[in-house]
Amino acid sequence: MTGFDTTRPNIARVYDYWLGGKDNFAVDRELARTMTEVNAGIPAMARANRDFIAAAVRKVAEAGVEQFLDLGAGLPTSPAVHEAARAVNPDARVVYVDSDPVVVSHASALLATKPASTHSKATSPNRTRFSPTRWCRRRSTGPGQRA
Ligand SMILES: C[S@@+](CC[C@H](N)C(=O)[O-])C[C@H]1O[C@@H](n2cnc3c(N)ncnc32)[C@H](O)[C@@H]1O
């Protein structure tokens, strides 16, 4: 696992800045602003992306999915996947995966008692401790009931 570098921009922290978060540094804000000069719509797109994720998670949770694998999760933001899922099903479980040790460090601290969090690259899922095929089980019974 690499160290924590505040002298180089980090895309998870840049994204956090666009979302109005506090987990970013001057170097991240500088890159975020430079990119926004090129396309002023980026922050709105980031927010729309988060809104879509929350809506999609709610939708599939309502359809009975109770286990979620968030690959490339990014820094914790609200609503996080587990918050959206648990608004529908309080027993929903979420595993967050990210290749960035900064993200994993934050997630481990902020989500310590909630979902699991693991350091892995989506391009090497066989190294992810939780197999997606095992975690994407769909219940055959209705919401609120265990299959
Ligand atoms: C811009 S954030 C997006 C966060 C969230 N998924 C969203 O859409 O709001 C992208 C995250 O993906 C992570 N990431 C990029 N490539 C990855 C890979 N190959 N495996 C796991 N995580 C990856 C980055 O570290 C970063 O935290």
Describe this protein with a few key phrases.
single chain; mainly alpha; Rossmann fold; disordered C terminus; binds S-adenosylmethionine
Describe the structure.
- This protein has a three-stranded parallel beta sheet with strand order 1-2-3, covered by helices on one side.
- The protein has helices at 11-18, 26-38, 42-62, 81-88, 101-110, 132-135, and strands at residues 67-71, 93-98, 116-119.
- The chain has a single domain (11-135), classed as 3-Layer(aba) Sandwich (Rossmann fold).
- The chain is built from six helices and three strands.
- The termini are far apart.
- The protein has 147 residues and is mainly alpha-helical.
> How many β-strand stretches?
3
Using the coordinates shown, work out and report the CATH topology.
Rossmann fold
Overall pLDDT score = 80
Number of domains: 1
Tally of helical runs: 6
Strand content: 5-15%
Which segments are poorly predicted (pLDDT under 50) over 5 or more consecutive residues?
130-147
How do the helices and strands follow one another from N- to C-terminus?
HHHEHEHEH
What structural class do the secondary elements suggest?
mainly alpha
Cα distance spanning the termini: 38 Å
Task: Indicate the overall shape.
Answer: globular
Instruction: State the CATH superfamily name.
Output: Vaccinia Virus protein VP39
Kindly provide the radius of gyration, computed on alpha-carbon positions and rounded to a whole number of angstroms: 16 Å
Helix proportion of residues, in percent? 40-55%
- How are the strands of the largest sheet arranged? 1-2-3
Bound chemical compounds: S-adenosylmethionine
Main sheet characteristics = 3 strands, parallel
CATH architecture: 3-Layer(aba) Sandwich
CATH class: Alpha Beta
